[in-house]
Amino acid sequence: MKKFNNGRLKIGIQKNGRLTEQTIDLLKRSGFEFDAYGRRLFSTCRNFPLEILFLRDDDIPEYVQDSVCDLGIVGENVVKEKMAKVEVVEKLGFGMCRICLAVPRNSGIEKIKELNGKRIATSYPNVLEQFLEKKRVISEIVEVSGAVEITPSLQVAEAICDVVSTGTTLRTNGLRVLDEVLESEALLIGNLKSMNKQQKILERFLMRLRGTLVARKNRYVMMNAPKSSLEKIRKILPGLSSPTVLPLAEQDMIAVHSVVPEQVFWEVMERLKEAGASGILVTPIEKMIL
Ligand code: PRT
Ligand code: ZN
After folding, report:
1. Four-way CATH pick for 9-95+186-215: 3.30.1300.10, 3.20.20.70, 3.40.50.300, 3.40.190.10
2. What is the pLDDT of residues 23-80, one digit of tens each?
3. DSSP of 247-277, one letter per residue?
């Protein structure tokens, strides 16, 4: 693809696949306005110097490495497989999956060592090769581009190495997981040179994107409590800074507002109730600029 530079940041995203919807949603929520309908190749952002290129996910790491794109959003599994020289700028928290080794349910194979001398079918030959090397297992890697899960029943291979999410595909094909090779999620990757060249726009881009990512991981919590509980409540709240404390019309009562990470949310709620908090209100946060 021809390189072009028009003072805009160029980001490659998946054109049509599992990551597309959440990628477009993340960019739009971060305030970037662009059209994504139809089979377009690229779109120009209306309110920010940003070009969005719609690509096959397999091409994104290399396009970023070769600075056809400055940035890209793609699965970690694809980045590792393509062995492209790119920087990981941000983990995006969606597109979660694992690359696993799997064998027929009744194959009797229990340990990876037992794959010595066996055939393993995969679309991830590089990832698999590195894994086998680390485990000191020598197998024949059979590269296939799709429908990996049917290769054992076709007698093409004794095991497979493929992306697993819920595990339904493995189960319906009579396979079970033998070992995990890689954990993956969608990544924002970048080309170091072009990021340095476009540092100003990049910083503005990242501030918007991170504002949305951080906000997604937190909740804004408001509660009432007796004044006497304030110290206990302050210790429980893992907030960014000290909580906002407001007086209430009812004497000896206060309102406390704070930000609570999603990860520890329920644990914190239980402890707050125990400490005397009541009328707890929880709202999502749209943006958070740190
Ligand atoms: O056309 P293009 O080349 O752009 O897309 P693609 O067909 O190569 O990739 P796509 O859209 O299927 O997946 C894009 C990315 O989504 C992958 O590279 C992963 O990072 C991520 N991802 C997350 C997944 C899955 N979950 C997933 N479940 N990719 C593939 N799968 C497959 C899995 O291999 C299985 O065959 O989906 C099937 C269902 O999985 P189970 O375990 O839920 O049954
Ligand atoms: Zn692909």
Report:
1. 3.40.190.10
2. 999 999 999 999 987 767 999 999 999 999 999 999 999 999 999 999 999 999 999 9
3. E-SSTTEEEEEEEEEGGGHHHHHHHHHHTT-
| Position in ligand 1 atom list of the atom nearest CA 56 | 4
Output the pTM of the full model.
Answer: 0.92
Q: Is the CB of 211 under 6 A from ligand 1?
A: no
How many angstroms does the Cα of residue 163 sit away from the middle of ligand 1? 7
Per-residue pLDDT reduced to its tens digit, 172-215 = 999 999 999 999 999 999 999 999 999 999 999 999 999 999 99
* Rounded CA separation 227/223 (Å): 12
Q: H helices within the chain, ranges in order? A: 20-29, 60-65, 76-82, 125-134, 168-172, 192-197, 199-216, 230-236, 265-274
Assigned fold of 218-284: Alpha-Beta Plaits (3.30.70)
As annotated, the residues of the chain forming the CATH 3.40.190.10 domain(s) are 9-95+186-215, 97-183
CA of 57 relative to ligand 2 center, distance in Å = 5
Answer whether 17 contacts ligand 1 (Cβ < 6 A): yes
Q: How many CB atoms lie within 10 A of CB 62?
A: 18
Cβ(71)–Cβ(13) under 8 Å? no
Residue 75 beta carbon below 6 angstroms from any ligand 1 atom: yes
Q: Which atom of ligand 1 is nearest to the CA of 18?
A: 11
97-183 CATH fold: D-Maltodextrin-Binding Protein; domain 2 (3.40.190)
Q: Which ligand is nearest to the CA of 75?
A: 1
CATH 3.30.70.120 placement within the chain: 218-284
